[in-house]
Batch of 2 targets.
Target 1
Amino acid sequence: MAKRKQPEIDDQIIIYEKTGTYVVKETGEVASYKYYQACWEVPKASLPEGASRRRLTASGRSRAKATADLREKVYEFLASPDSHWNTARTRGATLNRYVERWIKEDLRLDAISETVKRRHIENYRHHIAPFLGDKNIRNISHLEINRLLTHSLLIPRDVPSKIYSGGVRPDVVLSSATRKNVRSTLSKIFSTATEDGVISKNPMKRVPKVEVEPKNKDNMDEAIRDVKKFMRWMKKNAHVDYCRFLLELLGLRRAERLGLTWDNIHGLDTSSPTIVISQQLARYESTEYDYALRSKASRDLTGWYIKKWTKTKKIRKIPLQGGFVTELRAHKKAWEANKKTWEPIRQKQIKAHKEWVTNKRKGDEPIVVPPIGMENLVFLKPDGNLITLNRDNEDWRMYLDLAGVKGWRGHLNRHITATIFANAKNPPSVQVMKEMLGHETTAMSEYYARVLDRNVADAVGSYIEELDFI
């Protein structure tokens, strides 16, 4: 076969040295890397009829790689301009086809966590694609997007779910907070499409922001009554998961609570025990889109693991008193009894796993319960199985239903905790609440609002006392 002649365009190629960023999985830090982008402006004379001026680009970790890939693109273009142009236009014909490329080439390189990337993908697949996915991306208007956010997503419908039986969660109506996240995903997609030249104008610039519905005081007071009713029900029934959900009322985030190990509980048998919040339960996302951004040591890791920092990367220490100490001690006794049941089986599983590693990981990886590295988690199922974030959430909703209490998001318990503290006879200082809840948290706003209202009411009361003529 004759070697095809490469186009002589080297003197027309412009190469840019660029810097990208990504999140290092092991540390959570943002790291940077350099890459090169080679560009070739398509001469007007070479453009097919009806095509506007455009450029061909290619990227690589070296100048040579970027240049070689660009030469290939230019060769294909010059060999058949019409075919190349039509292919390029077809690639972004529908929103679905464009997003497929966006996920692999843009979202993968974004300097955000794997979890946030997954949420963007799920937002698109579950809440955007069913309504806009088959539409031509160039024809999607701000009116259609606004209708999606303000009308379509408020109509009950079935949504895929790995937790619900049958793989479907029925009659889902998206909250304002979730619709705000959907808008964020749409903004990223259409901003990139505009930068790519796929669309000339970004329709999201004319789509109003989704205002998250505030949690007013009446709702919060009702929630406090409900959570007290629910916890009384669990305690009365000596529920096996009472301690697990009791710790929500210390202001722990779900991932922090489920990521607690007994090493985080200090001095439980002493008169002054404390709980140290320094880690969280997390999950390695699929390597399908971010494989190249993993270090060599972690690129093949999957599933759940203990991340050695919190959401805000702040370590918090909370003293334990009263019922919290009593329940944790009782929970530890039950935990140790459960361990005697699953530990002998686990040792056999570990032996099989070691043999699998010795045999160069041939075949399926043997299951170990609890997973290796998680055998010291405070909260496990009685049989040693992991309690994931989704499972915890489903348990929460199921138990509320059994207790005859109207359901609410478990995360609201952080706001409830802040409000109960604010309602106390002697509310703690703002600094103390920050230490408990974490410095960067919206739950603090609940505390600020309650304490401020009390201070204002007290000030007005004192002022009226001075107006002795009233």
Target 2
Amino acid sequence: MRHLVDITDLTPAEREALLDLGEEMLRHPGDFADAARGRILATLFFEPSTRTRLSFESAMQSLGGGTLGFAEASSSSAAKGEGVADTVRVAGCYADLIAMRHPKEGAALMGALYAPVPVINAGDGGHCHPTQTLTDLLTIRRELGRVDGLTVGLCGDLKYGRTVHSLVNALAAYRDVRLVFISPEELRIPAYMKEGVLRRMSYAETDSLADALPGLDLLYMTRIQRERFADPEEYLRLRDSFLLTPELLRPAGEHMAVLHPLPRVGEISAAVDGDPRAAYFRQARCGRFVRMALIHTLLSGALGPAPARDLREHPGRVCPNPVCITHAEREPRRLFLEEGGACRCAYCEAEA
């Protein structure tokens, strides 16, 4: 049984096959109208969502399947104190597949350890969001014709931005991709990524969107996420760090694409929406079809064995990340990754 917790759970060949299938489903959706007939997807959303939850439900229904679930933690037994491990075990009694969003980092791995059915990570706190990355990659292929050789600017909240973290991990598998990280000093890309995947990538950091734009093939805008800040004053100080306007876009390349995982809360002017380079609503549409491809692939058992991960259990060791799922669950398994002399929490990747 395969899960999708992180984008790196997929081999490059599996990822490209999913994107190819998503493209085929986008072009010929009717050919797959009965692919999941009689199957059920549980959408367990402990955190608000519009695009991800609706696109999962639309995807399953487009395949002829059914859905059940909840849209907020307060309408589930989490409000009574039930943990993720028990929730997914119960949901697996009623569904063939689970898509889960949770505010705690590492919650998807916790779910995958206990669920009797495949678990798809629909976003776990500020950690990662692999199905958004598949959506992004399909959009990039459709808008620009390739992923190899692109210069990609990622702008906004790079510290807590799970969509950014997943996309960077995916882009590492392509040839000659150069990254430009555009953010305030306080929201720089996390150290664990610089010490990990970014060691084999070419990247630069800046706090100026205007300076970066002329050299980009792709601009990936993100919002400053209020829900990730412990200090409301810091959020208020940083929330208006960037605003993409038609004037700012003028020197950018004619064929550059602007993506955004949405929602936007002021970082892209509505006046940009009419620009042909604004691809974010086309991007949202791609999400339905790439999730159709993923659901169909997981239910059919088409994926081979999962890539091996060297998880070590250390019962006496505690993850230092206060928003890690291990601090919210009763009696969690204390799992860690030991690579190159470093020890990281297997759930949230914080250095332990």
